[in-house]
């Protein structure tokens, strides 16, 4: 039935790309109220002038709105020429008496019965609402085609990315500029669609106005500016502070690279931070370029020095392919690229001492002293700079050479020491560095400041600080207890020691919705790590860290079938630590820790739709010789590699991995594992449309599961045999197999299996043309999958319910459901499985064919805002 309707619809409709030119009069309602006697004549004359310009340039008017015209053009440059002539002629005929808004929007539309179905006419209508009298606005597609057309003589000014009411995605808006027309207009009447991940400042930023001005000037002259200086000089804080003052970008994104253990992850980190889903069949840099090309984006790549070569390569590609992209990097060394501009950070200013210098004068003239005072007040609110302590504070700032990190470390001591005591301690420790000015001496000053802070803490605090250096990015209290509490430090001591280190600004703390997190500034971590190594304690701590990471990953694996969102957030927080262990597993030629972590995160990788990274990790880890790797670990890891490779449709790697897994299970005589591999190999054969081989493998897997008395394996093979029958349109056999699965899984208490089998029964009855029977099975599946928090399963069932809805004429409901499903897949990175893709495509095609592209798109977009949990409640309540 669906195929017949689609064919009939195709006979009366065609797709084509057109440019829409819309006009309307600014203030036409006011004109009618103030000049009712001649308003009709004025508007009639205006429409006549407008119509002539459209006709003379090859356009076709298809609607008169009373105060404007809607028209189409085959070529964008014809529409642009007409737009310019309209504004010029209206200015000549009416002056400032009547002004019209003119917009251009190009896109592919469906022509049917004289109507246009598509986004382009809707974008044109929204642009009219945003513009001003005398102005010509254009969408991005119009401008792209105009710039490619050698006959086009017009120029366009970019007005940024804007949210248009009812349009699914923000749009880049341009203004056509012509020498004879006015080009100065107020801001557009819209919401700018800028986005950023840069958070509000937790404490006040001090000084650096000159550097901010230099950044602004350099970004105007070049699209790549590097902020350079030693650790602790304030590069990251300056970049973040500068970005908060920028409002001319469509998006500003901060990309932290300090905890990237593998240079190859630079592009992936950018994509992940921006929420760009990687294409498993294309290099990540290509996906990045394609996604960032249209918009005016500012990227801040923070702490590039340890991945400078790879980061430079990524930046080179991005700048070459994305003409509106700007990049700020922070690093201890430049990229060395031709177009790169540099802003080198100097210490904060400290004025020379004078005989009559007052505290007020110092505060007004010295960035360094202002920073010290503000940070001292943060730890001791009663602290005040006065005539009694101003010289000591100035002496402290001078001894640490105005370096922000060193000043903040010194100011943190105000909680328990007077400024005179701090200055005295610094005098003894920093005497050799007095008066030095070059970069190497600044590095030594920072080191001395850190060492001085280390000297002022107790031995247990220092030991804990050194052990904390094995973590990357951040850590929870429980992680510190698991990794750092051994030998001289007990678990009970950890919380007090950690609190003391936070109080002394050596550890940062932030209270997040998912739980408190701690961490070290990168400079502190480096020095603490060096001390840990010098003390000969690094190996023991790294082993504790690796064991903790493996245990955490495997604990999460057991729970990830349930509360997926919270556990995914936890994994995201700990990814830098997991990656650090995997990287060390390769470097130390002991891959077991890394293999177990990457394998345990299998479900996380699939939920995120992230396959490239784990495939790369597992491939490299499994290539490292390891004679004592247990066969069971090897088998499970190769099975995970096969599943990930199958998800990215790398069928050669998939087949090899499943074969390796089978052989490992065979060596230890584990029939359950062997049956699982046969099951997976059967699925692979089905993907390749080798149905005879698929059936043979699944039957062998079923026989082996039966002999091993593995009911879960029996059910899994039976379920996959059911979907294989569906693929071959053998519906009666598929229904029989799915029914068997329901019975098996109910006996074993496998609710996930019951939900999947009921979903399969629903699918079979949809294809048989029995939508009401299908709906009964699908609602039962939805209820069970909801109780299990099986989000991927819920998405599949909702898509199948939507397929039922279009078959019973409830297309609006179907569109909303598909919108929820599409949004959930996009947000969580859940790909559409191969056996579902045909039905999903059919449903979307039916919706567009029935509702039209515009209405279907609007309903799908409305569905995006509903949320999957809310939708499930509504469906089950009906």
Question: Any overview of this molecule?
Answer:
With 878 residues, the chain is an alpha/beta fold. The strands form 3 sheets. Strands 1, 2, 3, 4, 5, 6, 7, 8 and 9 form a 9-stranded mixed beta sheet that branches. A 6-stranded parallel beta sheet has the order 10-12-13-14-11-15, with helices on both faces. Strands 16-17 form a two-stranded antiparallel sheet. Strand 13 (297-302), helix 11 and strand 14 form a beta-alpha-beta unit. The longest helix is centred in the middle third of the chain and has 24 residues, at 564-587.
Q: Main beta sheet: strand number and arrangement? A: 9 strands, mixed
Low-pLDDT runs of 5+ residues are 1-13, 431-437
**Helical run tally:** 39
Judged by helices, strands and strand pairing, the structural class is alpha/beta
Overall spatial form:
flat
Query: Beta fraction of the residues?
Result: 5-15%
Write a compact overview of the structure shown.
The protein is an alpha/beta fold. 60% of the residues lie in helices and 11% in strands.
What is this structure's SSE topology?
Blueprint: H1 2-12, E1 13-25, H2 28-34, H3 39-56, E2 60-64, E3 69-73, H4 76-94, E4 100-112, E5 115-117, H5 119-130, E6 136-139, H6 140-148, E7 155-163, E8 171-177, E9 191-192, E10 195-196, H7 209-221, E11 224-228, H8 235-244, E12 251-256, H9 266-274, H10 284-292, E13 297-302, H11 308-321, E14 326-331, E15 341-344, H12 359-365, H13 367-379, H14 390-399, H15 404-411, H16 419-429, H17 439-455, H18 459-468, H19 477-484, H20 491-503, E16 508-512, E17 515-519, H21 522-534, H22 538-559, H23 564-587, H24 592-600, H25 602-608, H26 612-623, H27 631-647, H28 651-667, H29 671-687, H30 691-707, H31 711-727, H32 731-748, H33 751-767, H34 771-787, H35 791-807, H36 811-828, H37 834-851, H38 853-864, H39 868-877
Parallel strand pairs: 4-6, 10-12, 11-14, 11-15, 12-13, 13-14
Antiparallel strand pairs: 1-3, 1-4, 2-3, 4-5, 6-8, 7-8, 7-9, 16-17
Helix pairs in contact: 1-37, 3-4, 9-10, 10-11, 13-15, 14-16, 15-17, 18-20, 18-21, 19-20, 19-22, 22-23, 22-24, 23-24, 24-26, 24-27, 26-27, 27-28, 27-29, 28-29, 29-30, 29-31, 30-31, 31-32, 31-33, 32-33, 33-34, 33-35, 34-35, 34-39, 35-36, 35-37, 36-37, 36-38, 37-38
